[in-house]
Design brief:
This protein is mainly α. It contains six helices and no strands.
Length: about 120
């Protein structure tokens, strides 16, 4: 029953994201609204991590299964995608490096700012 309650909380947040996506005129996916709502709820303490942790772990463990249909879809259009494989791989590699670098820099700045704040 505990996990069912946790799934219901996550589904309710997802539903609120869907409603926001429907109501607001911005081109933002409902899942992004849901993630922002969940983050806000967790940061404000409206929802505590133990209230959703077990269901979230189950969903994260199932996540790789969700990529199977996309991979099969790519296999069905392989002949059309073949000319674009090298540019896509290069773009993916370069952007991954850029994102990793930017994430590292932001993390270092946050840690430095936190350390300066704790020294005072």
């Amino acid at each position: 029953m505990k996990i069912l309650r946790q799934f219901l909380i996550i589904l309710l947040i997802s539903l609120l994201g869907e409603i926001l996506s429907w109501l607001l005129p911005f081109p933002v996916p409902a899942s992004v609204y849901g993630l922002v709502l969940m983050m806000a709820a967790l940061m404000t303490g409206a929802i505590l991590i133990p209230q959703v942790k077990e269901a979230a772990v189950i969903l994260i463990e199932l996540m790789p299964v969700m990529f199977i249909p996309a991979a099969v879809g790519l296999m069905t259009v392989w002949e059309k995608l073949r000319p674009m494989v090298v540019p896509v791989i290069v773009i993916t590699f370069v952007t991954t490096l850029l994102v990793m670098g930017a994430t590292g820099l932001v993390t270092q700045k946050v840690i430095e700012k936190k350390e300066k704040g704790s020294e005072n």
